[in-house]
Amino acid sequence: MGLIAVVSAGGAPGATTTALALTLAWPEPALMAECDCDGGSVLAGLFGGHFPADRGLLNLAWQITEDPGRVALHEQTYPLDDVGDRPVLPGPADPFQAQAITAVAWEKIAAVLARQTADVIADVGQVRAVGYPFAVLAAADLIVLVLRPTLRQVVAARPRVAAIRDALGRQAAIGLCLIGRGPHSVAEVRKVLGGDFAVVVQFPDDARSAARLSDGDPKRRRLTRSSDLLVQARTVARALRAAVDHRPGRRPDRPVSPLSTGGGRPV
Ligand SMILES: Nc1ncnc2c1ncn2[C@@H]1O[C@H](COP(=O)(O)OP(=O)(O)OP(=O)(O)O)[C@@H](O)[C@H]1O
Ligand SMILES: [Mg+2]
After folding, report:
1. Number of structural domains the chain divides into
2. How far is the CA of 46 from the centre of ligand 1 (A)?
3. What is the pTM assigned to this prediction?
């Protein structure tokens, strides 16, 4: 199925939160993979430290490098909901550990993510000049750049869009995801960033619901399905799914098989 890479231009616009909301709202089973070299945040954030850090991307990288016959992505995930068909692969909280993942290992990780039978939403964090896993973007069917429509973020996004196009070619499918309203319209942002985007979507500024995803909730309340964030996430998820489906030269989908994860506290 599809690999959707969620990236940012920096400044914490909400890439991780957006990736989590999309995974929860995705129209089919989906896996969220934290591939952020600056350090993953779901274990300490959403999961509030309730899970031990004994599963995740680092273990997967180790297996892929040292024991490729034993690669079992789902053993490295935690469940995001009760059903268990929305697993999360946590990234290491320590960015220095994340930097230890080699370029070759990233290529193999990207290949594993791209060949899943369910859609994968990968949070690839801030696009950087050095030590950035472009391999995950290269394997993606769609790259979604999350930003707020402010001059600061648009200025930061411009060279990053150019870098992605330089690395992957002009045909790279890039989408924009704008968080909240700002001084600049969607049309202005789109124009300044080069116009040619596969899809443009918007998320509401919903700090309360967003905080439950980014930082968890000490009272362990669930995020209500009617929150502005999740209602919009369902619309955005469908739009992104359609952009992936209609991508020129897209490979045919394989049959969907349900995802499952090991036990743990559902969110
Ligand atoms: N749609 C939204 N509305 C309001 N606040 C949001 C929204 N999305 C995210 N936030 C808030 O913005 C902050 C940053 O979110 P998040 O950690 O997801 O960003 P990020 O881009 O992944 O940051 P980093 O670069 O640190 O990885 C958090 O406080 C989060 O709750
Ligand atoms: Mg993040």
Report:
1. 1
2. 12
3. 0.93
